[in-house]
Amino acid sequence: MIRVSKLNCGYEDQHVLFDLTFSVKSNQFLMILGPNGCGKTTLLKALAGLLPYQGQITFNNTDIQTLKKQALSKKIAFLSQKSAIYFDYTVYETVMQGRYVHFKKTFFKEAAAEDHEVVQTYLQMTDLLDLKDKSIKELSGGQLQRVFLARVLVQEPQLILLDEPTNHLDLRHQLELMTYLDEWVKQPDRLVIGVVHDLNLALTFADELLLLKSGQIVAHESCETIDLNVMNDVFETQVVAYMKAALTRWKR
Amino acid sequence: MNKSMRRRFKLIFLISCTIVMLLMGLTVGGASIPIRHVFHVLLYRLAGIQLPQYVEVTTVGLIWNIRLPRVLLSFVVGSSLAVSGSVMQSVLKNPLASSYTIGVSAGAGLGAIIVISFGISASFLGMFLMPVFAIVFGMLTIMLAMVIAKRVSTQLSDYSIILVGMILSVFITAMIRTLASKNASHAQQILRWQLGSFALRGWVVVGIVSGALLLLICCLLHDVKEMDVLTFGDEQASAIGIEVAKTKWRLIMLSTMLTGVAVAFVGMIDFIDLIAPHVIRRFFGSEHRYVIPLSALFGGLFMVFSDLIARTILAPSELPVGTVTALMGAPFFAYLFLKNGAKKRREL
Q: Residue B58 burial (CB < 10 Å; 0-12/13-18/19+)?
């Protein structure tokens, strides 16, 4: 579904990703793991078409650089880690903004009845229906994260890119989110790629793992077959030993 | 009462206030004219209905040739400044941004002053020479402010753009003063213009300015959805499907043109662009499909009110309208700044 070849990407003063080549089939939940600064977010942004890059990214055999902005946003949605809020919008208004590419192409680009239905559906799914008229400035970090998640979902994309989606979420909402994405991705022509820091979540929900270190791929394998000892190398710490210690306690 | 009902009530209230204010602008003044007479004059000029005996011919002249153009001009200028302010705030993701705080109006002012003090003339531009200079200089100022602010911090969202704009404003104002003192012959004209006034503008100016400003405001209404999304940051806007660079450029261009035209024909009038969008957001929410048209309404209303005070409070002499808006606007700006500061401290 998505194919990345010889991807080089970075910022003005810093080259971040070096010659990444990988591909992911549809209906997969791919999680990217790696230490801080290894290029996880940069990779997501390149996939979302938000950063200039060298190399090629094709989505369903179409080079994403040939797609117009609006066409791209109908296929690929991106949940950013950072979100700036300066003005008071209600939850409903904020989520509705995700429908932008679906709005009627009239002078004022109004929302159609269908847009309202979609927003309503996803507000319910993200447990925000009771908050829909509340100002986003009054929400907790977790509630806000769910608002932005809903905004991504109403875009009705085929590929969802998530940059640390479980940030600020309490355990219940973390699990609900992951379970939902797990179901979402099973429908035809869909794919989820997420960056997480929580190994437990990754190992529980991911179909495939992509391990990054210093802008290069260390491993890209299915969760079932991956040799976990490679984690020690990626994170330069005794990850596996910690996980095992935790597991022993759980068993007690 | 549900939300949309409440909104409708507030809207009706705002529109009624605007109509009352416009009528007050026509009745109150050096010579106060009864409202009945005003209606007669309007009916006479617009529909050709015969004037009653008790309405004097001088009243017709006063209303039709002096007060009405003045009230209309102040209304459209107030509207355009307010709209330009709301656009700037959205594009720069900063509730403190306005053409005044980021230096656009000072820049536009410098452009116009250069025309006055160097006596520049270009016959093919005619009376559009000043607006063209004002717009070009306004654009240059905002570009300079953005370039410098980017150097200070890569996120335009913080206070750096305001600080840079303020610095530029002060610097440009100093340049204007230098030009004014060098050209003693034009000093009076420059000073009057710098403080802004709606006095004695004919129907031609009113027509041109209103036409231009209404057209620009309509163009901006096309981008209300984009403005909403842009307040959340460029990256989010881009991911949602907006051509960020192109849209921002277009919006900045249009709002600078609004300020430029207003400043060039009327002079520098501060603070309306900052206040109006805030008041509207407070009562109608942040969605720009409301903020843009209603800021236009409120900005116009507020400007007519300011002008009314300017010409009555010290009558028969007249206070520059820029002084009135600044007298009311500066405390409001301070209040906003302090309120934001307090909020930041609470979050820490």
A: exposed
Residues of B in contact with A70 (CB under 8 A): 241
For residue A237, give the nearest of A199, A195, A192, A206 by alpha carbon: A199
Cβ contacts of residue A53 below 8 Å, gap of 6+?
A7, A8, A9, A17, A46
Q: pLDDT tens digits for B149-159? A: 877 766 555 56
Which residues from chain A sit within 8 angstroms of residue B292, using beta carbons?
A: none
Q: What's residue A247's pLDDT?
A: 87
Q: What is the ipTM of this complex?
A: 0.89
Helix (H, G, I), strand (E, B) or coil at A209: strand
Q: Cα–Cα distances in Å, from B263 out to B56, B111, B134?
A: 35, 10, 7
- pLDDT score of B125: 66
For residue B105, give every residue at least 6 positions away whose Cβ sits within 8 Å of its Cβ, in sequence order, or none: B99, B138, B259, B263, B268, B269, B270, B273
Measured between CA atoms, how close is B222 to chain A, in angstroms? 5
CA distances from A223 to A31, A190, A210, B136, B177 (A): 10, 19, 10, 60, 71
| Residue A241 touches partner B, C-beta closer than 8 Å | no
A103 in B contact zone (CB under 8 Å): yes
* Per-residue pLDDT, A1: 87
The CA distance from A34 to A124, in Å, is 33
Q: Mean pLDDT over residues B199-212, rounded?
A: 81
Tally of helices (H runs) and strands (E runs) in chain A: 9, 10
B227 interaction partners in chain A (CB closer than 8 Å)? none
Residue B348: band (very low, low, confident or very high) from pLDDT cuts 50, 70, 90: very low
Which element (helix H / strand E) includes A15?
strand A14-24
Which of A75, A80, A78 lies closest to A63, judged by CA?
A: A75
Q: Which residues contact B234 (CB under 8 A, 6 or more apart)?
A: B244, B248
Beta strand A29-33 with A76-79: parallel, antiparallel or unpaired? unpaired
Question: In the predicted model, what is the mean pLDDT of residues B69-77?
Answer: 90
Whether residues B281 and A77 touch (CB distance < 8 A) is answered with no
**Cβ density class A30-61: b for 16+ within 10 Å, e for less:** bbbbbeeebbbbbbbbbbbbbbebeeebbbee
Starting at the earlier edge strand, list the strands of the sheet with A208-213.
A76-79, A159-163, A191-195, A29-33, A208-213, A216-222
Rounded CA separation A129/A111 (Å) = 19
Question: Which residue, A101, A100, A156, is CA-closest to A125?
Answer: A156
CB burial of B173-210 (b: ≥16 within 10 Å; e: otherwise) equals beebeebbeebeebeeebeebbbbbbeebeeebbeebb
- Chain A positions touching B336 (Cβ under 8 A) are none
Is A41 in contact with A30 (CB distance < 8 Å)? no
Contact B240 A108 (CB under 8 A): no
